[in-house]
Amino acid sequence: MNAEAEEIQDLPSIFSGQPNIEVITFYEGQTQYATPVSAVRYIEQDRRKTTRIELNKELGAEVTTYQGKPVPIFDFAGLMGCEAEYIKNIKLMQLLDEREKDHRNWMNSLEESLRSGSEFTLARDPNLCKFGQWYNDFKPDDELLADIMEDFDSPHRRIHALADRLLKMRDAGEQEAALKELEKEKASSLARLINLFKAAKDRIENITRPILIFIDTESKMVAIRLNAISDIVTYQVGSFTSKDDVDDSSDLNDLNFLAGYLENKNDEPPCVLLDWRLFKGKKSAL
């Protein structure tokens, strides 16, 4: 056996006897992962209907079809023990729906207090309402969403400032003037806030487009749900280090399909290479 043949024989099996490997890269959180292109059979937007078998509120099984045969679906985030980005985004849109309703109700409650003379008990400080408490800590990664969220501050503060100002007018015998001012603010500040809620939800919906990649594990076909695909990259065998050479911790035993790490350039953190031939499956979070 010549030296070149010996060198190929010594290559990691995931490289299939080649000096390099072409991979599809994607992110889960801040970690970059890669799956060999050779294992991927099909990629599509996650829009199809699926069959779900719920074991409890958090776990279950999900199945789709590929070439006329049932194929199990696994959320990659669930395999990693974390919440998928698309699920976080769905929850975020639901939260924004609720906070929009809160502010519609806030304005209606203020109107009722102005008309009836009853006590107004809702938050007057914009930092103390549910939206304000959440808003002050929310830091979106998406730049367009960040710009939209920044625009919330002014109309939100203006709305909450109405309570003290208009209730003082009511108590000073200027009820009609206070009600007219409230109607004006409904058409301006509240309308602006509602438009921003819509813009934020639209943007979140636009960036929430999970995909399915159908992978041949050599024992069966599986579909893996990802938040998005980043790139297709070629790595040389010299950039690869096996998982066992880095960390043989028993904590990683359940993640037996982690083959190792691929070294990135420009001091970027290493990319985690996945070997789906080792994948044994796992109950998936629904």
TrEMBL record:
Residues of the Chemoreceptor zinc-binding domain: 103-166
Database matches in Pfam families: CZB
Database matches in InterPro entries: Chemoreceptor_zinc-bind_dom, CheW-like_dom_sf
GO biological process, one term: chemotaxis
Signal peptide stretch: none
This protein's name: Chemoreceptor zinc-binding domain-containing protein
